[in-house]
Amino acid sequence: MITLTGNDLTVQEVERVVFGHEKVAISNESMEKLRKSRQTIEEMIKQKQVIYGINTGFGKLSDVVIDEDALDDLQQHLIDSHSCGVGEPFSESVSRAMVLLRANALAKGYSGIRPIIVERLIDLINDGIHPVIPRQGSLGASGDLAPLAHLAQVLTGKGEVFDQGKRISAIEALRREELEPVQLKAKEGLALINGTQAMTAVGVIAYLEAEKLALQSELIGAMTLEALRGIIDAFDEDLHQVRGYPEQQESARRIRLMLKDSQLVTRQGELRVQDAYSLRCMPQVIGATWQCLNYVREKLQIEINAATDNPLIFSDTEKVLSGGNFHGQPIALAMDFMKTGIAEIANMAERRVERMVNPQLNDLPPFLSTNPGLQSGVMIMQYTAASLVSENKTLAHPASVDSIPSSANQEDHVSMGTIAARHAYEIIQNVRRVLAIELICAMQAVEIRGKDKMATVTRRFLEDARRIVPRIDNDRVFSKDIEAMNHWLRDLSMEQMDKYVYPSSTRVRSER
Fold it and tell me: How many angstroms separate the CA atoms of 185 and 168, rounded?
């Protein structure tokens, strides 16, 4: 059971709730803060104070004062009018993460909502009711307005939800679980949609996949090093220690451990003095990606516990402050950083694929074919990898450098953070397919060298991967192999990866 306080939810707890379907509750302390915050709002309404979003219009219409008897209608109109998302819906995992993160942010007690709002969000999580939320339509400032409006619709019995992969009406799902739709009161609609939970939810899920990819790239790269009889001296501890980056040192050490009993790697001068950069510089490049991921994780950890709506209610001092905590720039920049950091894994992996298939760069059969000429072998796998890498270069263009004014120029700078997060996730899918291609090629090449000469770690990984993609003895439809390997890499957990990478008593990766 994860207890929400709004202050200490972790990335790993998000993972447990989203993918492990762990149940959620709200702390008693948070419930008291919610009641106190709501009381402050109601007192201000009685005193007829003019407060943005409570008894005024929104955005450029903030100067329009709303009659007291229309305050509840104002909130429902807000949710209806802002439900402008388009395109395919987010996955159920992203939707589930959005509900969790919104509940946690509201649990901080600065939003002026009634406790029933957070309780109902928690009901959605615990009952597996996942709102159907279109992916496109957020500017990433004033919050993720359109995506969160679609989420809020479900609380009121409108919209659609996923039910075991099928789309059904929200009211049908609520009735099935004996949950009453919520009638929104003053401030509650605005509190639900002012926030960065769409970009942050996508960001957390993307980060979790990216972290696993970085570790897989080291293991697959180690196998490629064996396939190409690479020089192990480039991973010597002394060399990496004098550079000074801990992430680089840890990456090099992991690769040394993976290859410690390999009979296929060589020493400098044995076959050649130096390897190409895509082999020799793996710790420097992948280590830099780990630095990027550490930065991203730090920003996500802050954001999932942040109060990001507007205005915020400070009950102890009876202040209601309008500001801009909904602006997604911190996450937009982090997502753009992650895009480039993770794309580099594929850039380097594709170059290693080229070195395995190009007969001018190795002593292996051309394109790893069993009958070169009659059969093309893995020739076109490299084409596919090159295409994915090139596509990533387009997706890696920073979304955060763009801004289009909205709401009659009242909201004249926006973050585009949700676009950055979505593109980061797309890049990650492309990177995994490139690694799947590298793994297929590395397995074929290393078996030509002699499987019995492999390191214990890489041989075990190969044996398990061979259950997914068999040895290439004849040309076949390789698209199926790439997708099968991609799905296998995706579905491996970090715990499973740890068992591959680390000897039983030696753990070198920093605790997440």
Answer: 26
d(CA 440, CA 491): 17
Q: How far apart are CA 449 and CA 300, in angstroms?
A: 44
411 touches 391 (CB < 8 A): no
Q: Please state, in angstroms and rounded to a whole number, the distance separating the CA atoms of residues 512 and 510.
A: 6
The total of other beta-carbon atoms located within 10 Å of residue 471's CB is 9
Instruction: Please state which CATH number belongs to domain 203-310+317-404+415-501.
Output: 1.20.200.10
Q: Is residue 506 scored above 60 in pLDDT?
A: no
Q: From the CB of residue 70, how many other CB atoms can be counted at a distance below 10 Å?
A: 11
Residue partners of 350: CB distance under 8 A and separation at least 6: 382, 385, 386, 388, 389, 434, 438
130-131 and 160-163 strand pairing: antiparallel
Helix ranges (H only) for 19-144 are 28-46, 71-82, 92-106, 115-126
Q: How far is CA 101 from the centre of its chain?
A: 14
CB-based contact 305:102 (threshold 8 Å): no
Topology of the domain covering 2-195: Fumarase C; Chain B, domain 1 (1.10.275)
**Average pLDDT of span 157-186:** 93
**Model confidence pLDDT, tens digit, residues 427-452:** 999 999 999 999 999 999 999 999 99
Burial of residue 379 (number of CB atoms within 10 Å: 0-12, 13-18, 19+): middle
Structure tokens at 223: 């196998």
pLDDT over threshold 80, residue 59: no
Pairing of strands 86-89, 2-4: unpaired
Which tokens sit at 87?
Answer: 């395109």
Q: Do domains 2-195 and 203-310+317-404+415-501 have the same CATH topology?
A: no
Is the pLDDT assigned to residue 480 strictly greater than 50? yes
Burial of 511 (0-12, 13-18, 19+ CB in 10 A): exposed
Positions marked active-site: 52
- Ordered by start, the domain boundaries in the chain are 2-195, 203-310+317-404+415-501
pLDDT at 52: 80
How much is the average pLDDT of 334-358?
Answer: 97
Of 500, 509, 489, the residue nearest 210 (C-alpha): 489
Structure tokens at 459: 């041989």
